[in-house]
Queue: 2 jobs
Job 1
Amino acid sequence: MSEHFAVEWGDPTLYDLTINTERVPVSTAVDMVVGLARSREFTETPASRQHLLDLALAAKVRAALRANEPTSAVDVTLDVAGSE
């Protein structure tokens, strides 16, 4: 992850929820995840759907640039807003 996204996968601040499955039974962990997924904070909105579409478009552009030999070393930051 650090090579491609410049983040450390073990950094707990990257996640909305971390569960120690050595201490919490799987059934309880599942209940926690389902409860959180159903909460108001995680309800899909038009804005959140648009943000996901924007992220997907940015990822496709980066992948296309990397797949093309002349642009494979280009490191760009994309700011996509309102993609369709």
Job 2
Amino acid sequence: MTARDPKRQKQGRIVSGAAAGLPTEIWLTPGHRRAKTITNCVTNRWGDGPDTPAGVRDRVARENDPSLEDLLARVDDKTIAMAIWGVRNLEQRWMTVPPGGALRLSWPLAPDFFARAAGSPATDQ
């Protein structure tokens, strides 16, 4: 996410290989690439299908990576739905922060954080 205040927006680099235009196979380990893929499938920033556990599983299947499919096979739909809900919740909280404001988060999450996810659109099948 970037700052909404144009004066505070900066071009950033998480990994220097990206700036050099190198393929991810060179500057990210296989584990990092898989984590990035799973994250992209859950956050679904490009609106590629529904934001549901089935939608996440479909996006992962299209990656044609047996390791990703094996990983996701060990995760139940409720956990995927909670991850989707958590992303949505964080985005909504971020959007309420005024320009120049701060979003304060704590870790570990409050015990009831995901209890509020019950009945959210991501958990409806």
